[in-house]
Specification:
globular; Glutaredoxin; disordered N terminus; alpha/beta; single chain
């Protein structure tokens, strides 16, 4: 069965063990838009999140901040704000969230609200994708339960950061 590009029900392009496909992002603030290749050389943790998601605000964003705090410059963390419900957030809303939540990672908007969300096969928000230093997808998981998704991410990040 051939995958059709306009089939929104199955656009997942992320495969474990394969290169991370390009993302479709837009700036939130006046930052440059990096490509996926920009992050080759170090592991990359991608957080697909929404400011309208309680699990993102209460657990995922603090976890992403902790990854940066504990690992310094050994890993890159990027947030992609998606909104599959189609509700837009203003730049002021993002600035307030960045300050209130002490967001340490670069964050971008998902193009057309959910393009990367769909192409990366996100199960909802928060969704995590862990990529090794060569740009190969190592892990993909939905959720922010500390005893499931976040514990598994800790273990996978630890494996990728081994010398």
């Amino acid at each position: 069965m051939m995958l059709q590009e306009n089939n929104r029900l199955n656009l997942n392009r992320v495969e474990l063990g394969q290169l991370l496909p390009p993302w479709s992002i837009e700036p939130i603030f006046d930052s440059d838009l990096p490509t996926v290749e920009h992050y080759h050389g170090k592991p990359l943790l991608i957080l697909i999140f929404s400011l309208g998601c309680p699990g993102c605000l209460g657990r995922a964003i603090p976890y992403a901040n902790r990854v940066i705090y504990e690992n310094g410059d050994k890993i890159n963390v990027v947030g992609i704000h998606t909104n599959f419900e189609g509700v837009d957030f203003s730049e002021d809303h993002f600035a307030k969230a960045k300050m209130d939540l002490h967001i340490r990672f670069l964050m971008f908007r998902d193009k057309n609200f959910d393009t990367t969300f769909l192409h990366y096969g996100a199960g909802g928000t928060p969704h995590w994708i862990l990529v090794d230093k060569n740009g190969i997808v190592d892990y993909s998981i939905f959720g922010s339960d500390p005893n499931n998704a976040l514990l598994r991410l800790d273990l996978k990040i630890g494996e990728l950061l081994l010398p």
